[in-house]
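WARN retry 2 of 3 for item q-0093 after timeout on previous attempt; input resubmitted unchanged.
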Amino acid sequence: MKSFAYILSPISIKQLKTLSPVLRIIPDFIIKPKLKNNSPFKASYFKKIQSIQGKEIQGVLIICPLLPRQMLDSNENFVLDKIISAGHLAQQLGVKIVGLGGYTAIIADKGLTVAKKLKLPVTTGKALTAWSVFEAIYRVARAKKISLQNSSLAIIGAGGSLGYLCAAKLSEYIPKITVAEGNRERLYQLKEKVANLNSVEIVIEDNVHNAVKNANIIINASRSPEALFSLDELKPGAIVCDISASWNIADNPNGRTDIIIIKGGLIKPPHTTKNFIHASLAETMLLTLEEKFTSYSLGNNINLDKLEEIADLAVRHGFEVWVPQAPVL
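OK item q-0093 returned
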């Protein structure tokens, strides 16, 4: 049976304790300072994941034991070494492909360095994540009778490949896109690339608060563990799709019942009624099911065609973008 590994960094000590029950008896204040000295470890297995095509695969979850702020504030080479060590553990287990989840995908040079060091195919799941964002916004807008053609979009954290993919796909439907929070040179590159694809107005905004207050739809793709804006700032009836690694907006609603908050990047695998997984994990599973053992969502220049390809693979194998506000009928 073909197998994969999924490397994940916990977003909190609470999640770490869920993934590693042996740590539950240890106080948080003892665990946190020791994480930097801990080696990556195997947490659990994904057993007999079955496609609607009848194919079966299996996988292993490997934990890179660094919290978000530790990953962002530590020396980049130190963090990369941790992620590569997790990859070596995956290699020893004989997997065919490695998926990077959460902050491991953000920090690890978009997966390029990890793939080079491991000599194994690596994916970050950005293609399927971007597709899931597009489908979520499209379905919610249709369900709520919101015209995308008459809406404006703001992307916070737009400097990365995920921000570009979301902007590129949604530029087919939305006439004005504001991009903020990111390397300004990268934002200018995004503007030029997207403008070459579709007739769309791209606005570069230095101030996140200005970007969100004038938008009908907001995508939060920020790498910051802390929220960069508040729901209080948003227009009535705004749609927020939160795909930040720590879901810092979706997990902190403030009572604005008029705001539609989508916890983005969730996929429902086949043959289950309850379990939802991250798109980065689902993309790794889909590539394994297809035996497409090649690096996929890597670097800053992910081809937009990959969104369509991975969406087709999801349909082929029975994986569904999960949007509880607008379920597939």
